[in-house]
């Protein structure tokens, strides 16, 4: 069994969506201990979006853990533009992670791959209940209507964004990506890992 960490490292220099809160760290230190306080956007780094992100009912504390644990399929679609339904023809898992090859630069960029509305509908039609991607959003950066978010969340799917999939090959894995259980929060950071089972 091999565990692959698909959580990007966060630092105070990690770029955030314009207007969002970057990571900030403060510490109280004495001779005997150190106690830290951090603030940051709930959408910084690998994170899960709850329905409340779109002003629907349901915050991150209401997400059942089993929805983020279990078999998943990693699909590789190397692009920096729109991902279409035709590119997702071979889906066979209810949890799908999409590897586009995106690597966050040192400053925020609006140039990253995203899922078309038709792609979201196709995934939902295939019984997909979790949609993950290695970019900051399943929507185009300029889409203020968040069409893909709306379709996914209203269709009952969980959204995982900002995953680190550069070391992951396309294929089947076990996913664990649990959010913090904070009442009222619309999104939460996750420590996401894939478990690669040895072939017998």
CATH topology: Glucose Oxidase, domain 1
- Give the assembly state of these chains: single chain
Order of helices and strands: EEEEEEEEHEHEEE
Proportion of residues in extended strands: 25-35%
General shape:
globular
Count of DSSP strands = 12
The CATH C-level class name? Alpha Beta
CATH superfamily: Putative cyclase
Keywords:
200 residues; seven-stranded mixed barrel; 12 strands
Describe the structure.
The protein is mainly beta and 200 residues long. Helix content is 8%, strand content 32%. The chain has one domain (2-196): 3-Layer(bba) Sandwich (Glucose Oxidase, domain 1). It has helices at residues 117-125, 147-154; strands at residues 2-5, 24-29, 34-39, 47-49, 69-76, 82-83, 95-99, 114-115, 130-133, 158-161, 171-179, 187-196. A seven-stranded mixed barrel has the order 4-10-9-7-5-11-12. A two-stranded antiparallel sheet has the order 2-3. A two-stranded parallel sheet has the order 6-8. The mean pLDDT is 96.
Q: Strands, helices and their partners?
A:
Elements: E1 2-5, E2 24-29, E3 34-39, E4 47-49, E5 69-76, E6 82-83, E7 95-99, E8 114-115, H1 117-125, E9 130-133, H2 147-154, E10 158-161, E11 171-179, E12 187-196
Parallel strand pairs: 5-7, 6-8, 7-9, 9-10
Antiparallel strand pairs: 1-12, 2-3, 4-10, 4-12, 5-11, 11-12
Helix pairs in contact: 1-2
């Amino acid at each position: 069994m091999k565990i692959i960490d698909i959580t990007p490292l966060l630092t105070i220099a990690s770029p955030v969506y314009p207007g969002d809160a970057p990571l900030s760290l403060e510490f109280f230190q004495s001779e005997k201990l150190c106690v830290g306080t951090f603030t940051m956007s709930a959408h910084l780094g690998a994170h899960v979006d709850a329905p409340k992100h779109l002003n629907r009912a349901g915050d991150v504390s209401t997400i059942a853990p089993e929805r983020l644990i279990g078999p998943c399929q990693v699909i590789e679609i190397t692009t920096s533009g729109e991902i279409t339904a035709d590119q997702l023809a071979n889906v066979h898992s209810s949890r799908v992670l999409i590897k586009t090859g995106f690597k966050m630069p040192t400053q925020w960029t609006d140039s990253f791959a995203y899922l078309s509305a038709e792609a979201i509908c196709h995934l939902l039609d295939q019984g997909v209940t979790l949609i993950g991607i290695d970019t900051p959003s399943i929507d185009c950066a300029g889409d203020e209507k968040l069409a893909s978010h709306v379709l996914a969340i209203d269709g009952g799917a969980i959204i995982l964004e900002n995953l680190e999939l550069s070391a992951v090959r396309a294929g089947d894995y076990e996913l664990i990506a649990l959010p913090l259980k904070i009442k009222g929060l619309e999104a939460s950071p996750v420590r996401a890992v894939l478990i690669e089972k040895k072939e017998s």
